[in-house]
Amino acid sequence: MEVLIIIVIVILVIILAKYNNLVKARNKVRQAESGVDVYLNQRFDLIPNLVECVKGYSKHEKEIFTEITNLRTTYMKQPKDIKNAEKLNNKMNQIIAVAENYPELKANEQYLNLQKTLTKLESQLQAARRIYNTEVTDYNNKIYTVPSNIVAKLFGFKEAKLFEIEEYKKENINVNFED
């Protein structure tokens, strides 16, 4: 009888330890996701400044500016929507490509400072994405490996999604200036 009680207690301790490890891993994923969101918000807060700076040099690119403004507004309404963030990211790359065709703009100090800040934020965002993917992989490994997979299934832990860029977004951006 004592042996049975000891076995039950050991099993409960193992279950509790595995549960706690899964909760900690899930919280790390959430924290990493929040880190990505912070850098996206910082980047998107720079957008109005960049748009205004470039707008003065490239009046006929109004369509891109309007689209960027609309995408930024959409993202701000749903900040954790990675799809909207990626659409906005692609348009930001287009506006930078547009700016490269204006030598006076490339020499403008305000533009250069904005571009440096965006470059720095992009680097931090890439690091945050790597951290997020590392935490997601660690969490998912815990969900699928024995014995924590049993505890994960018992308590309804779900697989987290890795941050991935769609294939077409990996290609270079082509900006067409002809009407």
- The whole-number mean of residue pLDDT values reads 79
List SSEs in N-to-C order. Answer: HHHHHH
Q: Approximately how much helix is present in the residues?
A: over 70%
Derived structural class: mainly alpha
Return residue spans where pLDDT drops below 50 for at least 5 consecutive residues: 168-179
The fraction of residues in strands falls at under 5%
**Largest sheet, strands/sense/barrel:** none
* Count of DSSP strands: 0
Cα-atom Rg, whole angstroms? 23 Å
Multimerization state: single chain
Euclidean distance between termini CA atoms = 86 Å
Output the number of helix runs: 6
Approximate shape: rod-shaped
